[in-house]
Design brief:
Arc Repressor Mutant, subunit A, WH_DNA-bd_sf, 48% helix, two-stranded antiparallel sheet
């Protein structure tokens, strides 16, 4: 299985935002840090905003920021929302399949089990796990490492 470019970019954008801490940034800053297309990242930011993972503000002083703490953002949820399809073989898709083996084939079940295992790995990790090496990652992206925000006391 290959992850789509949008999912890859979404995970990279979330890593960048997590390293920024409470300080937001612009999509252009993320694009420059990773040398990626700003237009592609705008679409990713819009999708992440629709998912409730980031907040966006338009205008001159606008930008993007995490809407939740890194611990609350599971990779599995992001991957599931960003990927358009998990139909790894034709018989898993929504359309009619023309496979002669379809009535008796067990391949679909095996592929579905493999997909479940793939997604289960992402489910075990949060965005916080990806940014555990804050200083090293921040340095690679040209950021000053932001302190991880302390949880609110109730």
């Amino acid at each position: 299985m290959r992850m789509t470019q949008q999912t890859d970019y979404a995970l990279r954008m979330l890593i960048y935002l997590a390293l920024r801490g409470n300080a937001g940034c612009t999509v252009s800053e993320v694009a420059n840090a990773y040398d990626l297309s700003r237009n592609h990242l705008l679409k990713v930011a819009r999708r992440l905003s629709q998912m409730g993972v980031v907040t966006t503000e338009r205008g001159r002083s606008g930008g993007i920021a995490l809407a939740r703490t890194p611990e609350e953002i599971t990779l599995g949820a992001v991957v599931r929302e960003m990927e358009e399809s998990f139909a790894l073989v034709a018989c898993m898709g929504d359309g009619e399949t023309r496979c002669a083996l379809n009535p008796a084939c067990r391949l679909k079940g095996v592929v579905a089990e493999a997909l479940d295992a793939y997604l289960a790995v992402f489910d075990r990790y949060s965005l916080a796990d990806l940014v555990a090496e804050r200083s090293a990652l921040a340095g690679l992206l040209g950021l000053v490492s932001q302190p991880h925000p302390a949880p609110a006391l109730n």
